[in-house]
Amino acid sequence: MPNYNNLLVEETDGILYVTINRPKALNALNQETMGELEALFGSDYASRKDLKGVLITGAGDRAFVAGADIKEFLGVAAAGSGKEMATRGQDVFFLIERFHAPVIALVNGFALGGGCELAMACHMRVATEQARFGQPEVNLGIIPGYGGTQRLNQLIGKGKAIELTLTGNMLDAAEAHRIGLVNYTLPAAEARAKAIELLQTIGTKGPVAVAESIKAINAYYASSDFEEEAAAFGRASGTKDFAEGAAAFVEKRKADFKGE
Ligand code: CO8
């Protein structure tokens, strides 16, 4: 099994258990973690036709993933490469969305920004009762850049997608279930069991049929415009507003945006 610095990866009975493991930063996705997800879904396991599926969760009891790593991203935005970074992240999440076996997010706490986007790139989501969902990028003066503007529409429709994206408000797990953002919301132990049960059930079906179903369902959404999202993310991340929003986050204060 390959070695990762930010992922714990175990395999039991044909199911791959992946834990994003940066609990001190609430499992925020830095570039190294994105590279490890790329290696895992792009090459290390992509040819494993015997895999029943993958379960992704976050380490610790507070977060699934609290977003892209804001502190690391500040340097990238200053260098003007926001668009490239968004495109790269989108490509990593496409590997998950297009993976031949089912990938389930077990959302065990905050799923914010890039964390909500990671959960949405998975084929299904099972939430624990303490899960919280949101796209708070607007609080930082940026927009979702890892597919959130496209996949929120797909999962919950335009009205709610716009509300969540423009307000940055968080949803609790019950509301996320009510609006269809997650497949199930359950107490923690039951949520894990449910995710495993889903993967075991799918694991008894024809692997070719499972892979072809994923492909065919994804095809319906082929006209989504991820490129426009990356371009818009690039524009927003080059603003003084983002510099202010990110500084406010680091200094734990409210941002004072000027629209510049
Ligand atoms: N990045 C880096 N560090 C983080 C992040 C993050 N996204 N989230 C939390 N942390 C760190 C905190 O800085 C803190 O570190 P320290 O102890 O060194 O101060 C530690 O984790 C614990 O966090 P808090 O003290 O803030 O814990 P609270 O319980 O007070 O608050 C929250 C929990 C509400 C989850 C709060 O941490 C928060 O709001 N986090 C940021 C959420 C957010 O804005 N996420 C979106 C990020 S932007 C994004 O994801 C864009 C995606 C597309 C990017 C495309 C190109 C990069």
TrEMBL record:
Q: What CDD domains does UniProt report for this protein, alphabetically?
A: crotonase-like
* One Pfam family from the record: ECH_1
Q: Is the Lyase keyword given for this protein?
A: yes
**Do you know which InterPro entries this protein is assigned to?**
ClpP/crotonase-like_dom_sf (IPR029045), Enoyl-CoA_hyd/isom_CS (IPR018376), Enoyl-CoA_hydra/iso (IPR001753), Enoyl-CoA_hydra_C (IPR014748)
Q: Which domain of life is it from?
A: Bacteria
Q: Does the keyword Lyase apply?
A: yes
What GO molecular function terms would the record report?
lyase activity
- UniProt-listed PROSITE patterns: ENOYL_COA_HYDRATASE
Its GO biological process terms?
fatty acid beta-oxidation
Assigned keywords, A-Z:
Lyase
**Residues spanning the membrane:** none
Family stated for the protein in its record = Belongs to the enoyl-CoA hydratase/isomerase family.
List the protein's name: Enoyl-CoA hydratase
Please give the organism: Neolewinella agarilytica
